[in-house]
Amino acid sequence: MEKDKLWMEKAVNLALKGRGYTGSNPIVGAVIVKEGECIGRGYHKNFGGDHAEIEALKDCRESPEGATMYVTLEPCCHFGKTPPCTLAIEKAKIKRVVVGCLDPNSLVRGKGVEYLKSRGIEVTLDVLKEKCSELNKEFLFSMSKKRPYILLKSATSLDGKIATSKGESKWITSEESRMDSHRYRAVYNGILVGIGTVLGDNPSLTNRSGVGENPNRIVLDSNLKVPLNANILNIKDNAKTIIFTSSLDIEKKKLLEAGGAEIVKVNRDEYGGLSIVEILKELYKRGIYKLLVEGGSKVHGSFLKSGFVDEVVYYIAPKLIGGKAARSSIEGIGIESLKDAMELEFSSVEKVGPDIKLVGRRKCLRD
Question: What is the pTM of this model?
Answer without folding.
Answer: 0.91
